[in-house]
UniProtKB/TrEMBL annotation:
Source organism superkingdom: Bacteria
One Pfam family, short name: HTH_18
Cross-referenced InterPro entries: Homeodomain-like_sf (IPR009057), HTH-like (IPR037923), HTH_AraC (IPR018060), Tscrpt_reg_AraC-type_HTH (IPR020449)
PANTHER family hit by this protein: ARAC-FAMILY TRANSCRIPTIONAL REGULATOR (PTHR43280), HTH-TYPE TRANSCRIPTIONAL REGULATOR EXSA (PTHR43280:SF2)
Organism for this UniProt entry: Bacillus vallismortis
GO molecular function, one term: sequence-specific DNA binding
Name of the molecule in the record: AraC family transcriptional regulator
Amino acid sequence: MYEVKLQANHLPKIREAGHMKDTEGTLRHPDRTMESINVFFYVKHGAIHVFEKENEYRIQAGGYLFLKNNTPHWGGDFYTPGTEWYYIHFYADPSLDQKDEFSPFHNSPILLDRTYSSQLTFPKSGSVSHRECTEKQLSSMIHALDSPSAFSALQACSLTYQLFIDLYSNAINGQAGTRSSRIISRMIEFLHRNKHAKLVSKDFENELEMNYAYLSSLFKKQTGKSITAYKNELLIAQAIDLFKTSNLNVTEVSSTLGFSNPYYFSRVFKRVTGVAPSVYINELYRNP
């Protein structure tokens, strides 16, 4: 499918961007292979016909397409007169090997470092729901890029990142109605509703009326973490809240949350947050 990816904590690095219009209908998409450059374009008016290796795309007004670096692409039909589009050429991200995909099911209240080091796989193509907003974003990005400011490139890259995140989230939201997504949403709701309970496999089977092995495998695939790991995140989020809002010590919080002993609690806390609870407490703003 020649998908275009970006690390979640990296801005897309623009090489060039612009707005074009073919008034006479004498142009078509270039025939080229861009070794280190990904391409994004959005059609404002008319339509653009593009091939990327064996795949064919006809992008209508209000639609967009990502083209992957180092993959041959070329134009098909000439543009219809009056075709107008925006384009962004940005450098391929070389740091994506072995990165986990960002999970749209990240409902944990803890912001963890691995959330930012995940990767985003952008939808290959699609249509925007609010064309005026998207076109305003693109216009603002090009205006920033053309600015004489020393920060013009960074500002343009930041605006492009916001545009790409909007397209990504809209595509993910469009998949929310799939069967697997509905199952995961029900599991997460069940976990949050019972975050104080000691859930076992039978509880999930009774709630979802499905085999636990299947549910566990699906959860791991969709969220990137096990059910137990997700449950631990919920428990540690409660621990952090108790550390913030009370003067309870580690042993007292461990007991409040039902851990067998404070040593096990500390191990789980460090596994989730990356630091021991005593370190986390020292770094908090706590109520007097």
